[in-house]
Amino acid sequence: MDIKTATALRRLRLVSAPEAISFLLLLVCSVLKRTTDFDAVRVMGWVHAVLFILYVLFWADAWNRAKWPLKTAALYFVLSVLPTGGFFAERRLRREAEDAVIAARARQEGIVNA
Hints:
Elements: H1 3-35, H2 41-66, H3 70-81, H4 85-108
């Protein structure tokens, strides 16, 4: 995996959890708006919108650079629209990055010819 692909995957991983948190907070704010006088939906809506747009941009870049099959790309996109999906995306992306590091070290040491 080249450095640009690793960077694209890292950016997507780093925005996944905050995007999921902002989605959950937006849901909580929506409930609070309808049940109390607390109204933070406008602010949380903007925060979530910015993080979601970043997620989609980083997702498209990662898909392009990592050459994911359509099934994998679709999975990461679907995870972005589920309330807790970003946490699962972050975990999968971290595991993928760790596997890539292990494979690179093995190639460096001549254990695997790839």
